[in-house]
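Researcher: Going back to the complex we discussed earlier. I've cleaned up the inputs and rechecked each line, so this should be the final set. Can you rerun the prediction on the complete assembly and write out the structure?
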Amino acid sequence: MPTSTYDIDAAIPAPERARHIDLARELAQRIAAGDPPVGALLPTETELCHSTGLSRYAVRQALHKLTGLGLIERQAGVGTRVLASQPPTRYVQAMDGLSDLTRYAEGTSFTATVRERLTADARQAALLRSAPGAKWLHLSGLRTSAGALPEPIALVDIYVADEVSRLSKLPKVGQVFGVPVYQLIEAQYGLRVTRVDQEIQGVCIDGEAAAALRVEPGTPGLRIIRTYLQGERAIEVTTGLHPASRFSYTMSFRQSA
Amino acid sequence: MPTSTYDIDAAIPAPERARHIDLARELAQRIAAGDPPVGALLPTETELCHSTGLSRYAVRQALHKLTGLGLIERQAGVGTRVLASQPPTRYVQAMDGLSDLTRYAEGTSFTATVRERLTADARQAALLRSAPGAKWLHLSGLRTSAGALPEPIALVDIYVADEVSRLSKLPKVGQVFGVPVYQLIEAQYGLRVTRVDQEIQGVCIDGEAAAALRVEPGTPGLRIIRTYLQGERAIEVTTGLHPASRFSYTMSFRQSA
DNA sequence: GAGTGGTCTAGACCACGAA
DNA sequence: TCGTGGTCTAGACCACTCG
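Model: Rerun complete. Updated structure for the full complex:
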């Protein structure tokens, strides 16, 4: 039985680092080896206290660490259950805000050429994830670089759900605009976009679009469709048409700790 | 001065939930109000113990929660510093493994038509993020749906860095193949991909590519370039050419708790 | 040297789940 | 009813920072 009086431990120049970390590592290795297999219960806190000679506090710290790693699950009255033998390797693309989605838009501005209220037909309803007959505010325009010679960057369509479309600072036709519309909605209606779905398609730019973007008909491009949702409700949908020569979409996925 | 003998508190039917959570919430509100402004120090643990009547353990639990929220930063010998007045709203696209990147590949198979070792010229070096003259293993082939009539899905090129290219289970020319190459590298060299960079371009599919994919010349498509890195070293690069009619890239970003 | 947060002990009461 | 984990107290020693 390890007595572990505090003075004794203090006299020793410290064995390693924190003991709860050692214990966590040891338990993780045992779990990896399948000692308590997935789905089985780990020893109780009391048992671990006795077997390790540590206090309950230290044992709980170790188990807390394993919980954070997703290795175990704890429930009062039941015990500590093994969830996985290996900490799952996850990869994430993280953003510090939705503005990262449209970072390319920095140094550019949006000029509206169309502003109308529309009632969705069948085709539009599919894009807008709403029932046919639903009302939306529709803006259409051109995004241009803010430099001396304003090169068109993208043809943009913005749809705003009727319930959140009474926005005081919305761009007027012909007006240059800088703020993302979803930010106006969040500010004015006090809600938060909880999810953004994004689809990227390859397209050939023809006809009017080619003329507006000042590229040759048949030029390759990207169509990006973003749906901003609060919960399951789509509150804004944007589509952008980007000439491939002026835009490519890059992202980076990192292994999450 | 709250005496807070344990029996007294126990006799009361529990005020709310855990007291450390109440304290965390109160501190978060104060920080939001700028009481200790960003960059300043919070009261020390001892002061919080006195002002709240809680034990140091409970106070530390509350501060630990705020640390997890990214609101504060702690350092022994210095104190508790306010990092932000609001918990940053982050959005993440999470994957439970890199196979999610190529989920579309399920139910498809890769058939190699080219297998060679190459020495990167200037143009290839840029794609492969290595110096000109570096050696890579190059596979080229077609990804087809596994159904009865094998429709070509994508033209694929795979480049494997020389140091990790001695792979026993690598696809041979003409052979149907199912496992992602990065998994072979991870398994055989005992390393882990820590980052994947991805670029998506819009293209028009012409010439040989159109013939191989059995689409009309001038058909729109997507080119997807993935770079698999361990640390800062690129160990594999893949490019895929997908007809737009058979593939679009979708992703979803969620607000992270 | 005084004070900070990091670690740890040895107790205790509680809500909850299972027998 | 019994044992689980969740919460909490009141002490303690340590490494570290700073004046």
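Model: Worth noting: The interface with chain A takes residues 88-98, 100-101, 192-204, 218-222, 242-244, 248-256 of chain B (CB under 8 Å).
Researcher: Good, that matches what I expected from the previous run.
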